[in-house]
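TL;DR need structure tokens for one chain.
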Amino acid sequence: MYINSNPYNIAQTMKMHDNCRHCGLKYKIEPNFFFGSMYVSYGLGVAACVVLFAITYAFVGLEIEVAFLVILIGLLLLMPPITRLARNIYINIFINYDRSMDKKPRT
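>> reply
TL;DR here they are.
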């Protein structure tokens, strides 16, 4: 789906192919289609924060200030994969996956 498979290549994190190599699906269904993925990204970010807080504060027992610092650093490190995952989730909300298309040869 993405031109560069490494999400941490910040210059190319958001660059996508125009069409799927397997089935020819056009990824950009309409202009600014992926703006809606920001809502999915927000949910994933909140979930990551809750998990990081539970690990650092509840299980490890760090002080609250240190736990929030870990959350901040964790979110900064997880931002590129969360952004891509949110786009993948968002497009799958609107496009149904057809397994029969996987068996067709690439063109």
